[in-house]
């Protein structure tokens, strides 16, 4: 699966993909991530990509031409399934959206800055608008990294133990059960006896019960959907 991320701050996206699971996924050619510097597509000598908003108001707006030039160049090279704009007014990212996107081939992700991007980019090129939550960040780069991580780990072969993505919180609509490792007792705090019992059936039933309880307590909204 290929991701093309368009940004004015490519340096912000150097590190998130250079470690651990995502790094291995790229080495195994399961994921291909390309970061494009929007300024290289600016059509003026100062390499500026923003301008004042029509109608007045505070903040600058990212212009259509550089985005159009970069998107159209990419689209002339291969077919893209989605052009996604990271924005706080998009649909809130959840496991279902990540699951759906993990089965496509090629995705372009646009990172906004300043006041946002010219509405015509959204109208003409963007196929999905995604938010990572009801708060505003300084730009779309960190949201883009979060989206890529959430999708890439679902691609078969990316996680060494595929079942571990299936048992993630949210995959079955519930939060995860508590987990423990050695030592069995630390400063008087004990691991629940059931987990040491070796009784698989009872452990599975305990985990189901804990998942339900935790979800009821912390995220009752998940049970009402
Ligand atoms: N850009 C700025 N804030 C954002 C958010 N919450 N989600 C996605 N993109 C953003």
TrEMBL record:
One Gene Ontology MF term: tRNA (guanine(37)-N1)-methyltransferase activity
UniProt cross-references to Pfam families, sorted A to Z: tRNA_m1G_MT
Domain called tRNA methyltransferase TRMD/TRM10-type: residue spans: 1-224
CDD domains referenced in this protein's UniProt entry, alphabetically: TrmD-like
EC category: transferase
Binding site for S-adenosyl-L-methionine: 112, 132-137
InterPro entries in the record: Alpha/beta_knot_MTases, tRNA_m1G_MeTrfase_C_sf, tRNA_m1G_MeTrfase_TrmD, tRNA_m1G_MTases_N, tRNA_MeTrfase_TRMD/TRM10
One Gene Ontology term from the biological process aspect of the record: methylation
Entry superkingdom: Bacteria
tRNA processing listed as a keyword: yes
Localisation: Cytoplasm
Keywords: Cytoplasm, Methyltransferase, S-adenosyl-L-methionine, Transferase, tRNA processing
Matches recorded under SUPFAM superfamilies: alpha/beta knot (SSF75217)
Catalytic activity: guanosine(37) in tRNA + S-adenosyl-L-methionine = N(1)-methylguanosine(37) in tRNA + S-adenosyl-L-homocysteine + H(+)
Keyword Nucleotide-binding: no
EC number: 2.1.1.228
Family: Belongs to the RNA methyltransferase TrmD family.
Function field: Specifically methylates guanosine-37 in various tRNAs.
Annotated HAMAP family: TrmD
Quaternary structure and interacting proteins, as annotated: Homodimer.
Name under which the protein is recorded: tRNA (guanine-N(1)-)-methyltransferase
Species of provenance: Sphingobacterium bambusae
Gene transcribed to yield this protein: trmD
């Amino acid at each position: 699966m290929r991701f093309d991320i368009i940004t004015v701050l490519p340096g912000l996206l150097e590190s998130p993909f250079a470690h651990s699971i995502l790094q291995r996924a790229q080495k195994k050619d399961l994921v291909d991530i390309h970061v494009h510097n929007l300024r290289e597509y600016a059509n003026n000598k100062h390499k500026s990509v923003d301008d004042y908003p029509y109608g007045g108001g505070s903040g600058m707006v990212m212009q259509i031409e550089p985005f159009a030039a970069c998107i159209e160049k990419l689209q002339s090279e291969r077919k893209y399934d989605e052009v996604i704009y990271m924005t706080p007014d998009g649909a809130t990212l959840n496991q279902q959206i990540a699951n759906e996107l993990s089965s496509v081939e090629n995705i372009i992700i646009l990172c906004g800055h300043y006041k946002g991007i010219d509405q015509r980019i959204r109208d003409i090129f963007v196929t999905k608008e995604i938010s990572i939550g009801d708060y505003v960040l300084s730009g779309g780069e960190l949201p883009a990294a979060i989206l890529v991580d959430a999708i890439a780990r679902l691609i078969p072969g990316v996680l060494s133990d595929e079942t571990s993505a299936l048992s993630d919180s949210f995959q079955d609509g519930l939060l995860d059960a508590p987990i423990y490792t050695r030592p069995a007792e630390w400063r008087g705090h004990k691991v629940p006896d059931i987990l040491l019992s070796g009784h698989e059936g009872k452990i599975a039933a305990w985990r189901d019960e804990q998942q339900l309880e935790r979800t009821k307590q912390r995220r009752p909204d998940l049970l009402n959907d």
